[in-house]
Amino acid sequence: MSTARPPIGVFDSGMGGLTVLRALQAALPGESFIYLGDTARLPYGSKSPGTVQRYALQAAEILVRRGVRALVVACNTASAFALEALAARHPELPVFGVVEPGALAAAESEPGSHVLVLATESTVSGGAYQRAILSLRPDLKVHARACPLLVALAEEGEHQGEFCDSVLRHYLHGHMSGQSISRPASVVLGCTHFPVFRPALEALLPAGTRVVDSAQTTAARVREALGGAPLEAHADARLSLLATDGVRRFARVGGYFLGRPVDEVELVDL
To answer: Which residues, in sequence order, are CB contacts of 67 under 8 Å at separation 6+?
Structure first.
């Protein structure tokens, strides 16, 4: 008889959330997962808060109908604008976002230091990271920069090379040592697409700057909260991948975020 638990549901506006799924699978190898990428309506980062909330509730409903035992919102924008609504709609499930774990990690910075958040337009303008970090550490100086070009580059599978470095330098301008703002002690990757740029960022940032990956911090939070989750690989553990559009492209590019080939993606309609 199968001993597999009900799966953990994970959703994002596209493929960037696969970086969170990758971290979750590494932290919880005994768990099954269902991932939904709302590729028909990405990006969420340029949408209004009300639209993001509506899309998030619809995406979560697909996963809930498939019997998930927890929800992970692998999208910073949806975490910022829809987490409370999701928890209210599904009180029977634990609901995890990516903003709070990233903020907790950034709050470990040295007293009085600068923290730079790189995120989407909606996440930056909504101020979710700024509020979360400052609520924990009001002594820190938090700056946020919208980086829409990075989302497009990541979705195209471009994460290194001269052009990517040029775009990263553009977004880091004014936040480097010797410029108008003191170099940050921590840089928060406030979009799930951005971990793929981590090696390039670390090469450009001054030595000693800490890069906070919200995928890893979220995975650690989920593992801690689920308590008795199996921590060893299990033969019954399964992964299902869903997308609302472009399943062939999802399979082709998704492996770049997940860290291994993607064989099968199911098309779903919200």
So the answer is: 6, 7
